[in-house]
Design goal:
Blueprint: H1 10-15, H2 43-49, H3 65-77, E1 82-86, H4 89-100, E2 106-110, H5 115-128, E3 131-135, H6 141-146, E4 151-157, H7 169-178, E5 182-186, H8 191-194, E6 204-208, E7 222-226, H9 229-242, H10 248-258, H11 261-280, E8 285-289, H12 299-305, E9 312-317, H13 320-330, E10 335-336, E11 346-348, H14 360-366, E12 372-376, H15 382-393
Parallel strand pairs: 2-3, 2-4, 4-5, 5-6, 10-11
Antiparallel strand pairs: 1-7, 6-7, 8-9, 9-12, 11-12
Length: 394
């Protein structure tokens, strides 16, 4: 209803408010289209657009201008053809796995994945009979050895959570392609600034945009980036049915964070280097698991694959669980928290929190010990942060 008779009631005028699109100027910021639906003047156009990708917007679960601006930008940054923003990182991962797998299928997954993915795969094993083989992701020949007639997906992380393992993406993606597998890579810890897995042969990239892309600990979201149109359509169709789509306001907040991502990632990495190098020689620390350190098992491939080594790493305290408990009670600048990628430094105990769904054998296989802590280094002045960690260690 865009034109009204002169005698239309004030109650009707109050309901039907029409925004005027700018003419002759362009908004400096992406507008927030906080609307659940879009109206049409023509039934044929409405019918043609309904629940289709790439057409007119109809319903924000299927697409929204603000959300699409975010999706298009991330797709370009990741060298993909399309993207789907989701309500969370696990929403993105669930949309991918549930759309591409069927009962009885087999998945090859990197050992030591984010605990939420481990739990999801375990649930799919119980519910759907999905079988999972975990590999160390050290030698691409592991893919061929683990492959079966029912194998559909190879699942990897660019920088593994929390031990910082970086696998040879080009070689593993090539090995997967030789077996007609779809390679899915979680690029959250690297962000599109440090690595673009699609350039290295991956088929699908997922992010928890809650982390570095959002960057301010005030929004929960995820995104899937794909280059193949057929795969993209499968994921989009199922993701929309699943209800995994992102809210426009969440997408708008993520756009705001995205604009400063390259600048923030530089400082995250610089601060992480200083902290990792100092922790590595501290007498209370057994080992630091940051791929930027020369003695890390992934240092060589990380140097080739990444433009920098990331702001998250794990370190092992002498004294086990008691030492972890004491350390987390003493920190003041850093905060004990379940997430990462914001401006503030956070610390987490993987065995108790992020990877608590793993049993003792799985934790041991992933290298996670009772004294292992994960630190996501923030944007504080590095000397203030180090002083805090140093007093907590003392």
């Amino acid at each position: 209803m865009t034109e009204y008779a002169e005698d239309v009631h004030v109650q009707t005028r109050a309901v039907h408010i029409t925004a005027t699109p700018p003419v002759g100027s362009i908004p400096a910021a992406v507008p927030l289209y906080q609307t659940s639906l879009f109206t049409f003047d023509d039934l044929g156009e409405f019918s043609n657009a309904w629940a289709k990708t790439g057409g007119a917007f109809t319903y924000s679960r299927f697409g929204n201008p603000t959300t699409k601006a975010f999706e298009d930008t991330i797709a370009k940054m990741e060298s993909g053809s399309s993207a789907m923003a989701t309500a969370s990182g696990m929403g993105a991962i669930s949309a991918v796995l549930l759309s591409l797998l069927r009962t009885g299928d087999h998945v090859i997954a990197q050992r030591g994945l984010y605990g939420g993915v481990f739990s999801l795969l375990a649930d799919l094993t119980e519910r759907w009979g999905i079988e999972v083989t975990y590999i160390d992701a050290e030698d691409p020949r592991e893919v061929e050895k683990a492959c079966r007639a029912t194998t559909k997906i190879l699942y990897l992380e660019t920088i593994a959570n929390p031990m910082g393992h970086v696998c040879d993406l080009p070689s593993f993606a090539a090995a997967a392609r030789a077996q007609n597998l779809i390679t899915v890579v979680d690029n959250t810890f690297a962000s599109p600034v440090l690595c673009q897995p699609l350039r290295h042969g991956a088929d699908v990239v997922v992010h928890s945009t809650t982390k570095y892309i959002g960057g301010h600990a005030d929004v929960v979201g995820g995104i899937v980036v794909v280059d193949d149109g057929t795969v993209a359509e499968k994921i989009w169709s199922f993701g929309a049915e699943l209800g995994a789509s992102a809210d426009p306001f969440a997408a708008w907040l993520s756009i705001r964070g995205l604009q400063t991502l390259p600048v923030r990632m530089r400082v995250h990495c610089e601060n992480a280097r200083t902290i990792a190098e100092r922790l590595a020689v501290h007498p209370k620390v057994c080992e630091v698991h940051w791929p930027g350190l020369p003695d890390h098992r992934s240092h060589e491939i990380a140097t080739e694959l990444l433009s920098d080594f990331g702001g998250v790493f794990a370190f092992d305290l002498r004294g086990g669980m008691q030492a972890s408990h004491d350390f987390t009670k003493r920190i003041r600048v850093a905060a004990l928290a379940p997430s990462l990628g914001g401006v503030s430094t956070t610390v987490l105990h993987p065995a108790s929190i992020s990877h608590s769904g793993m049993d003792e054998n799985a934790l041991d296989a992933a290298g996670i010990k009772p004294g292992t802590l994960r630190i996501a280094v923030g944007l504080e002045h590095v000397e203030d942060l180090w002083s805090d960690l140093e007093q907590a260690l003392a």
